[in-house]
Structure formats: C-alpha cells, structure tokens
Specification:
This protein is mainly alpha-helical. The chain has 2 domains: about 5-105, Orthogonal Bundle (Arc Repressor Mutant, subunit A); about 105-180, no CATH class. Helices cover about 60% and strands about 10% of the residues. The chain has 10 helices and 2 strands. A two-stranded antiparallel ribbon has the order 1-2. The model is unreliable at about 1-5 (pLDDT under 50).
Length: about 180
C-alpha cells in the first residue's frame, strides 16, 4: 500500500513517535507530521512504491502523464529538504534517481573504486579476527580447522564472502600463526 493511501502524513507528530523514542525520532515525526502538501505526498508515494531501486522524475512523468510535469519535477527537491528522500548520485536516462531516506546506506559506497577497496579491506580484517578467535577457542583440544571453516561460512555467507576469501585467510593464518598451528 502506498504512503499516499495510508494517510500517515496527516497524523499529528505525537502519534508518529512513541513516548520512549529518542528525541531525534520525535523531532523527525514533528517535522513531517501533517506538513506535506497533496503533490508532495503523491510524489513521496511514488518514490516509496519504487522501493530501493528508486525512481526518476522522467519515470514519474511517463507513468503519470495526467500530472503536469512541473508538478512532479519540483517535489523531490522539496522532499529532500525535509529529509524524506535522497539522491545517491546515480542516474537513469540522464535523470537523477530519487530514493526514500530509509534506503540511504553504504550500498552506493561499494560501487565506487575507493569504496570497494575499503569494504574489501574491512571485510578481510573482520574475517581474520573471527577466524583467529574461533581457532583458539578451547585450544587445549587442538585447533579447530573444520569448525572454524563451518562457522566462517555461516558468519560470512552474504555475497559468498567466505568462499571468496577463505584461501587468503588460510594463508594469512599459516603465515602469522604457523608455529602455533604445527
């Protein structure tokens, strides 16, 4: 169901945040509660329906030719100023892609060369720490190669990170902990 149909934007701010929510949540609720115009609400619903893929103003105009182009194209900027949508910098057909703020995370970062390298390094360092910790649990019973490999596969199964890096981790472990492992 779209945001446009649910009507939460016409709800008072105190009903959008719980009593025990942090002040930032209450401030955000007050910021958006009942303060969006009809077209802003409509455009926000289109952005929400697009999901994480996002939508461009051109796509909105093609899907809704009954709306004036200027009515659709000026609303994303207003919504961005209210902190409800963002632009990650990507484009489709020459138009900027708009997404709900809830999709603003590091996803775009790993698509840049520097971002990919930083994330790769962070992932490898985290894997090394976990591998060593698992290997040395209860060392009195010997190092746990099989158990460590199984647990690493479960811990780092997203995007097959363990499969991608396991030989690097094994080599690193042998190089840095070889005397202990033998």
């Amino acid at each position: 169901m779209s945001i446009y149909k649910t009507g939460w934007l016409s709800t008072p701010g105190y009903k959008l945040a719980r009593r025990d929510d942090p002040d930032t949540s209450k401030d955000a609720a007050d910021k958006v509660a009942g303060k969006l115009g009809k077209m802003q609400t409509y455009v926000l619903s289109l952005v929400a329906e697009a999901g994480e893929r996002g939508i461009t103003t051109k796509e909105m105009q093609l899907a809704h030719p009954e709306k004036r182009p200027s009515s659709l194209s000026s609303r994303p900027n207003e919504l961005e100023k209210k902190g409800l949508v963002f632009y990650a910098g990507d484009t489709r057909s020459g138009a900027r892609v708009i997404r709900l703020i809830k999709y603003k995370h590091w996803q775009w970062f790993d698509e840049t060369p520097v971002g990919a390298e930083v994330i790769e390094t962070m992932t490898l360092n985290l894997m090394k720490e976990h591998y060593v910790a698992i290997m040395y649990e209860d060392v009195g019973n010997g190092l746990k190669y099989k158990e460590a490999n199984e647990r690493m596969a479960r811990l780092f199964n997203e995007k097959n990170q363990w499969e991608k890096h396991k030989e690097t981790i094994w080599q690193w472990f042998d190089d840095t902990h070889g005397e202990i492992a033998e």
